[in-house]
Design a protein that fits this description.
Helices cover about 50% and strands about 5% of the residues. The chain is mainly alpha-helical. Strands 1-2 form a two-stranded parallel sheet. The longest helix has 20 residues. It is elongated and about 35 Å long. The protein starts with a helix and ends with a strand.
Length: about 60
């Protein structure tokens, strides 16, 4: 099924952040990456319609509080 526009933007953004994260940390072991991803998830930024995701290139984002 197709996501709403904001949810789709969030998904694409978080996927891009994740891909870059793995490129930047290619030598890290899975447990270390899991800890890093958990930390990033806990620190993710709430977004709403109209927010500029370009400013959040290295941060995960979420749409529900």
């Amino acid at each position: 099924f197709t996501n709403r526009e904001l949810a789709r933007k969030m998904d694409y953004h978080n996927n891009a952040v994740g891909r870059q994260l793995f490129i930047d940390h290619i030598d890290q072991e899975v447990p270390e990456m899991a800890v890093l991803l958990q930390k990033m998830t806990n620190e993710s930024t709430f977004i709403k319609e109209g927010d500029d995701l370009e400013q959040l290139k290295t941060q995960l984002v979420h749409i529900s509080k």
